[in-house]
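Need Extradiol ring-cleavage dioxygenase class III protein subunit B's 3D structure for a figure. Predict it.
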Amino acid sequence: MQMLPTLFVSHGAPTFALDPGLAGANLATLGRRLPRPHAVLVASPHWMTRQPQVTLSLRPATIHDFGGFDATLYTLQYPAEGAHLAARRALELLQAAGLPATPNADRGLDHGAWVPLSHLYPKADIPVFQVSLPEWLDADGAYDYGRVLAPLAGEGVLIVGSGSLTHNLYEFRLGDPRAQAYAAEFAHWVRDAVLAGDHPRLRQALEIAPHARRAHPTAEHYLPLLVAAGAAAQAVPASVIEGGIVHGVLSMDSFLFGADLAAMKGADANQALAD
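Structure prediction for Extradiol ring-cleavage dioxygenase class III protein subunit B:
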């Protein structure tokens, strides 16, 4: 079976669901160009638990886990089916690695999952499940977490780490356009490390990258990038899915690990994986 690349997506603010901009358009193009997966796994900072959990919902609900936004957002649904067999396989992998992972039959899809997926796969016609991020993860732990889940990429599962390349909510609420310079500098530093396949540098980004603590006052929205990088079969090639900077401070760039997007040919790539 073809090995799928892995994906980090910047999911931005919940309003990304209504205002796709450059990032949404490029995710839609990516969804048409990638080989069609059997299922999608999403690791999101909006589901963090003491120990790993895996959703086994047959029809995961669309969770509107945010407040104070346009009322239209709360009417949106992402009616994808669950991915029971792939989720069970994820449980097996986590438990085999010595992690006390448990199933969760009731959990739906948080906005870190359904918002970017509404652009990547707008028909909601690919089964989706989530794996929680343990609260104790640090950068190395997140990378190793991805490595544990990596075999799924060879079994038709698209592994997605959904976070934000920059995530300073205080500055987001201020709406200061002057913040864009530092956000861009941090984003370019990470982009260079991704394209170079320099995963050790990615793992140290919150310690050594310019403006790292300003870009990420807390680490949880950066860790999904490391999950996706750790799950990749190979560090290079890697590709950037341009997203620009929105609200003056949120970098919306996403990264594809293990594939050269420029070399993909839509109709040839967008075929069902062979059994």
